[in-house]
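Bumping my old thread because nobody answered last time. Still need a sequence for this structure:
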């Protein structure tokens, strides 16, 4: 499930990817949907920036526990992150945040600015 919020980051759009209980199936499916979303937005002229520390670190620590040497202040921040995401994006409390992106329209690049890569349509074939 993807949820958007215009409040999360000023002057940019943002969205998160959340998953249910975190089974392997849920994680793989969330990854597939994330990639498709990213490619569809790229096709429409948007650029995405994943903000991974704010979601992947807390997810991993919620699932696997904290390391013994993790400073207390970090543990407190990571424990609060789920509530902050829930407050800003309004998703079910039992869901886990896996991805957090900010996004915005970008100007088309000139030929000399572009890097060599496959066209987006090649990846979106059904």
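Sorry it took so long. Here it is:
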């Amino acid at each position: 499930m993807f949820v958007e919020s215009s409040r999360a980051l000023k002057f940019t759009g943002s969205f998160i990817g959340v998953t249910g209980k975190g089974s392997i199936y849920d994680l793989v499916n969330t990854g597939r949907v994330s990639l498709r979303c990213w490619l569809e937005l790229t096709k429409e002229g948007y650029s995405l920036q994943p903000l991974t520390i704010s979601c992947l670190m807390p997810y991993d620590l919620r699932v696997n526990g904290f390391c013994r040497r993790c400073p207390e202040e970090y543990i407190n921040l990571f424990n609060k992150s789920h509530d902050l995401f829930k407050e800003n994006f309004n998703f079910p409390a039992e869901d886990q945040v896996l991805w957090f992106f900010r996004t915005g329209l970008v100007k088309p690049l000139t030929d000399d600015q572009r890097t060599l890569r496959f066209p987006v349509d090649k990846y979106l074939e059904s």
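The two ends are 20 Å apart (CA to CA). Let me know if any region looks off to you.
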